[in-house]
Amino acid sequence: MLHPLPDIMLEPLVRAGLLEDLGRAGDLTTDAVIGEGDTIVRAAFVARQQGVIAGLDMARLSFALMDRRITFTPKLRDGGRVAPGDVLATVEGPARGILSGERVGLNFLSHLSGIATATAAVVDLVRPYRARITCTRKTMPGLRAIQKYAVRAGGGSNHRFGLDDAILIKDNHLAFAGGVRPAVERARAAAGHLVRIELEVDTLDQLREGLETGGVDVFLLDNMPPDTLREAVKLVDGRAITEASGGITPDTVTAVAKAGVDLISLGWLTHTVRVMDIGLDYQP
Predict the structure, then answer these.
(1) What region holds the Quinolinate phosphoribosyl transferase N-terminal domain (predicted)?
(2) Active site residue 48
């Protein structure tokens, strides 16, 4: 079940977006074109393409922060699948606030829905297999919480949120520490009882050394072809979680899943995703 993020987490992001857009003088166009009276209008968020929705609460807040009199009515929940022409939500209230909040709301909604849509497409490709699709820390600074939320909306799962919620020993850590054994042993000695340790390995020899050292909860199998991944899964033999990563695309993800890994991590879900085409159409 997808649990929405609380407004206390979302509001600072939306507020920052609105302040950036309003700048030093406010909405010059709306102030000039729309009269001082409370002109009440109605508009609908409409999908221009097929996809999965995420970010409705961000859109809601973009109007609420402009004018509390604006009513935002969602027609579905985040994680819902839509077709072209489907109405996602409606807004009704003073025209000035709706016009000034429109772009920020659309930016968040389109971006997060793009992530959810891309995630759902990959999740569908690996559905027959055990592998779960997960994101990485390759997110835009300041937007990690909502980008990872959008991955969940698309049916994916989340990797660690930062440097402080798990130990992930990567290639540079191994180089600076002097190899697999000293790095893992130091990590194990320092880790709290609730902290998992993941070890990135590039070769089967590194994997064997990690298994012999012990204390590794997850092995990140980096840039390994499917045949090598299959052998790595056999070597691990259920003693740890296996994660495939590195250069995996929609064209190759099914072959990776067939190798039997537990997780497939994809950085491009958040760092190069295409936004979903959504419009705000005004209604009589």
Answers:
(1) 27-113
(2) no
Catalytic-residue membership of 138:
yes
Domains of the chain as residue ranges with CATH: 7-123+273-283 (3.90.1170.20), 126-271 (3.20.20.70)
Instruction: Name the more confident of 36 and 199.
Output: 199
Q: Exactly one of 57, 78, 222, 243 is catalytic; which is it? A: 222
Nearest to residue 86, comparing CAs of 282, 279, 283, 275?
279
Q: What is the pLDDT of residues 106-161, one digit of tens each?
A: 999 999 999 999 999 999 999 999 999 999 999 999 999 999 999 999 999 999 99
Q: Is 234 a known active-site residue?
A: no
Number of other residues whose CB lies within 10 A of the CB of residue 274:
11
Bridge partners of residue 92, in order along the sequence: 42, 71
User: What DSSP character marks residue 216?
Assistant: -
Q: How far is C-alpha 205 from the chain's CA centre?
A: 33
| Annotated catalytic residue within 15, 48, 75, 138 | 138
